[in-house]
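Escalated from tier 1: pyridoxal-5'-phosphate holo job.
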Amino acid sequence: MTPPIDVDLYSDTITRPTPAMRRAMAEAEVGDEQLLEDPTVNALQQRVAELLGKEAALFLPSGTMANQVSIRVHTRPGDELLAHRTAHPIHFEVGGIAALAGVQVRPLDGPRGQYDAATAEAAIRPGWREMPRSRLLWVEQTSNLGGGSIWPLERVREVTDLARRGGLATHLDGARLLNAVVASGVAARDWAAPFDSAWIDFSKGLGAPIGSCLAGSAAFIDEAWRLKQQMGGAMRQAGIIAAAALYALDHHVDRLADDHANARRLANGLADLPGVRLELDHVETNIVLIELIGSLDAATAMDELRRRGVRMVDLGPRTLRAVTHLDVDAAGIDRAIDVARQVFV
Ligand SMILES: *Cc1c(COP(=O)(O)O)cnc(C)c1O
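Tier 2 regenerated the structure:
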């Protein structure tokens, strides 16, 4: 029998709402969200529009829907989207780019989930009649498969300037944007400013059970509303979950620094093992990528960790990912290090 999970580093999505968050949810004022009558949803949308420096915002059930709705507003079938080859919608949204938007992807290369302006420039189509239109440029901040890396602000500005000059719209997948905010000290609105659309996820490091909020111009959000409705994302008394998101914005943002410290603590505890390659200065936020260079493959390592009560995930044959979050403290990290030191040999 598999023992219970003692330290769960699978993802920052596994957090459970705290008692105080649950109280906020229980006490939320609610109304019919589809009629724009849920005061808590309305307050959350207002709050996120301000946070991201945009005219309007829209509460959605997931980050996946925020991405898919955005792609559909910005593009037409046959258009092309430029994104790093590790971008979330390419791998984890069940082909929605193709199935829902009818759009194709130009995957871009570069270390740690980021491409540079020269790479983007070379990929923008020259506008020949037989080519797809380059229509949307995509940045994921922080980069998930890039190990939680933070795109430097200068690079964000370079690639988005280039996109605008080429007539492309720009989208910020900010599932973990607030991790970048806390780690960099750059405000969310400054990160979001060069983008036509940007969103944050409440169900990752912020520790809420459900939801994302997408922001952009009033016209963009009007269109996004229609697609939210069409895709079955319009809700009723959604203030119950919006209250958790508001609670998270009030109480769980600054503490992301603890997750970042715990990720560094974990990395420091593993970096000297002979079976492991781990770049300490690549641990910028709450994700640690562990490359196995000994005899052990990642799937076996994952099983061995799991048998000892620690959960991580294999992202490739030789790569494990560990993610820190609100439900793991420094003592838990130390237990994970002890276990990992038995396994990574
Ligand atoms: C998790 C994630 C998403 C999707 O968000 P869900 O709320 O899980 O649908 C999108 N982009 C990135 C970078 C993510 O990590």
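The domain at 255-343 is CATH 3.90.1150.10 (Aspartate Aminotransferase, domain 1).
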